[in-house]
Amino acid sequence: MVRFSNPILPGFHPDPSICRVRDDYYLVTSTFEWFPGVPIFHSRDLVHWRRIGHVLDRASQLPVDGIRPSGGIYAPTLRHHEGVFYMITTLVDGLMESGNFLVTATDPAGPWSEPYWLADSEGFDPSLFFDDDGRVWAHGCRPARPQRYEGHTEVWLRELDLDGMKLLGEEHVLWDGAVKGAVWAEGPHIYKIGKTYYLLVSEGGTDHDHALSVARAQNVTGPYAGSPRNPILTHRNLGRDHPIVGTGHADLVQTPGGEWWMVLLAMRPYGGHHYNLGRETFLTRVRWEDGWPVAGPVELTAEGPDLPPHRWPAAPACDNFDATRLAPHWNHLRTPREPYWTLTERPGHLRLRGRPESLTEWTNPSLIARRQQHENFAVHAAMEFTPENDERAGLALVQNDDFHILLVMTTSGLVVIRREAGVDRVLVRADVPPGRIWLGVEAHGQEYQMSYATSPGEWKPLGEPVDGRVLSSSVAGGFIGAYIGMYLSGEGNPTGTAADFDWFEYLPLPAV
């Protein structure tokens, strides 16, 4: 069998959920405050994945305007039943809408329906289970009743009427975790294997103490009894210096040949206990013993599934902005209510329109960004921009509003700004004429070296390497991985200035 490398989806791809339709596999992940929401991936071998779109790609589906960092879309679940795909998730702390909702599609690439909000549901991390008797069950997590300690949650279950898209019937409380005093029982999924129902739940929080536990019952409504071997998977016992930490939030899938596999989230710390890449999607084998699932070790390389390898064409490293629509790996911060970008006003360029909004606000700035997916990488871009007043444009490395790094042109020259805990520090400044400039970032671990050129190929380093730990959730908090992209802001002032980007390139670099 062919060996594969973990993670199968590098960079910020947390809370994976998977379903199989004949020989095809589909997978979704959380997106929190980023737009479009819930990327959907397709695979034929569980190892090689291609993005086929986003489930929530319209403003009417994803009102994350003004949402706090690490609010928004939590823990989607993807299921397929009788020709229809279902995605159920939670919008947390939305200013316009909040709560659990589901959308449907007959083609996983879309279009997906408008949201069906589940008015009588509560909590977070909802999931769906289609029983073989035709009944459909929604389940999720909420604060336990009574809540005996901070973080004490429980799993609830109710029947779902697909015709009316509403919950009905009696509510059942299934479980509150396996370990005594366990916090944040979450991410529940129910499976029926033979005549037995299995409930897979994460617990311990989504940081280092994350874990997976399982319970089973003879009826979907319970009572559920936990495995005597719980937790069935955790890396908290391996120490913070292990190359893979925080394993949890998993979903199971069976291949046509009968193999069982698990997709799950985990983190790869580097430069100390720092997680610039966020929570990523990993794959590990599952076998069964004494009627319980046994999760295999989550490793950086492992023996792959017994499936024919199916590779997809590699995406270009450089985006020349020759298309009329943004490539699917580009994201916006919160819901874009106005077209602040265009690919057609100047063909072959991405034009950002200047607006007052800034990265320092809980707003939708003029930012087109993609995930950082490697510990070592290089980004280069060509930009044309003539700043006025307080305007700035260039490259932004983003964790959230209070933690980010900027390499931007201003009226006082090219500057590097490191923002930590809401405080800006200008690290270096260079006199650079306005107009066309080439910008670069080269990261080796937590050292992010900025560079620039005013003539093609004549690159110069700009200052010393910048400490990249502000891009780690262990410093900045929250659930997000780092993004890098193209940025323009009037810093609170109205502006009509535009920044044109001729191309943007992202390249992984080998370990030194």
TrEMBL record:
It holds the Pfam family GH43_C2. Transmembrane segments: none annotated. One of its GO terms (molecular function) is hydrolase activity. Keywords: Glycosidase, Hydrolase. Residues 318-506 form the Beta-xylosidase C-terminal Concanavalin A-like domain. Belongs to the glycosyl hydrolase 43 family. This is Glycoside hydrolase family 43 protein. The lineage of its organism: Bacteria, Bacillati, Actinomycetota, Actinomycetes, Streptosporangiales.
